[in-house]
Design a protein that fits this description.
Elements (H helix, E strand, L loop, with lengths): L1 H18 L5 H23 L10 H23 L4 H25 L2 H26 L2
């Protein structure tokens, strides 16, 4: 969790630097978003858990991490003006929307010990879905 928060704060700082046209903002943005996507993709089961691996579905965590990392990379491509950004953002927005619906349905059906786990998945999927949709709509 601390790694995720630190990388998110670094991304916000790099976004402010990029808006101010300060040198080094692009490198910081690429570094923070790429590391965040790499944390989500192979280690989604760790970052989405409550550190109690008995109370989670590891397959769901890996799938969520995989699809949310696509949304993060799409946002990175769009902010850096790299080719292929719109295709990644469309895929990332659609999958984040679908994952939000799935996480909400799982949250409703979950037992009390799993509610916090699915709430975290729902929060991450909705935030990244909103950011990827905003990035897609901005020219």
């Amino acid at each position: 969790m601390k790694t995720e928060k630190v990388l998110s704060i670094l991304f916000i700082i790099s976004l402010i630097f990029k808006l101010l046209s300060w040198p080094g903002s692009s490198a910081l943005m690429v570094l923070s978003l790429t590391l965040l996507a790499l944390c989500y993709f192979p280690f989604g089961f760790y970052f989405f858990s409550d550190k109690n691996f008995k109370n989670q579905n590891i397959g769901v965590s890996i799938i969520f991490g995989w699809f949310l990392s696509i949304a993060i990379i799409g946002i990175e491509f769009k902010l850096m003006h790299w080719p292929g950004a719109n295709a990644m953002l469309i895929i990332g927005s659609l999958t984040a929307g679908i994952l939000t619906i799935i996480a909400y349905k799982m949250y409703e059906k979950a037992s009390e010990e799993l509610k916090n786990y699915y709430k975290k998945l729902l929060l991450r999927a909705s935030i990244l879905g909103i950011f990827s949709l905003i990035s897609l709509l901005i020219s």
